[in-house]
Amino acid sequence: MTNVNALWDFDDPAGSEQRLREAADVAEGTERLVLLTQVARALGLQERYDDGHALLDHLAVGDHEVAARVSLERGRLLRSSGDPDAARPHFDAAAAHEGNDALRIDAMHMQALVAPLEQRVAINEQALEVALGSDQPEARDWDASLLNNIGMAHADAGDLEAALATFERALAARERIGDDARTRVARWMVGWALRRLGRTAEALAVQRALKGELDAIGATDPYVDEELAALGG
């Protein structure tokens, strides 16, 4: 089975589309259908929503996992095009899939994105329970993203203490996974919450450390710069 994740660059959906199409051209059966659902996702990220729907319309769905993937990507297209209410039942259908924990978690996290604010924490926590209990590595590593989303839901609800505690858990998960760029984002979230809580010195230390690391690798991050400006540092 093709490693679909290796074909993705979410900062370059057009390039991802090309790679996914090329892989689908030489794949067969279920593998080909899975790849084409990802082509539809790449089309959506380019705001080519009608093209994405047309592609999904022509997939012959016989496999339960493929059906769940079609529902998930259909929902993403609808949400991205501005119709979250129409997207919701598609996410619900995908979240009912069993067997592929990562797929189920992905659908649950999308359910949370279209849910009312007061329901988002609970839905993400249900997805987190699936991730933490999974023996599938791809599913297990969803914990970092889910914890970040839970933290943001707490922040949106005005509970910054809960947000900070959750962002710290997300940071620990990112450190376990070992992706430097995403770990820096998780550290930024901790610093952001510290500033919002008025813990300025701690927040400044976080953002200065990030700035130093970025300078060392010749990179920039406008969000780090914005936080430093807000902190007067």
From TrEMBL:
Highest taxon, organism lineage: Bacteria
TPR repeats: 144-177
Keyword Zinc-finger carried by entry: no
Keywords: TPR repeat
Pfam families with a match to the protein in the record: TPR_12, TPR_16
SMART domains listed in its UniProt record: TPR (SM00028)
Cited InterPro entries: TPR-like_helical_dom_sf, TPR_rpt
Name by which UniProt lists this protein: Tetratricopeptide repeat protein
Keyword set includes Phosphoprotein: no
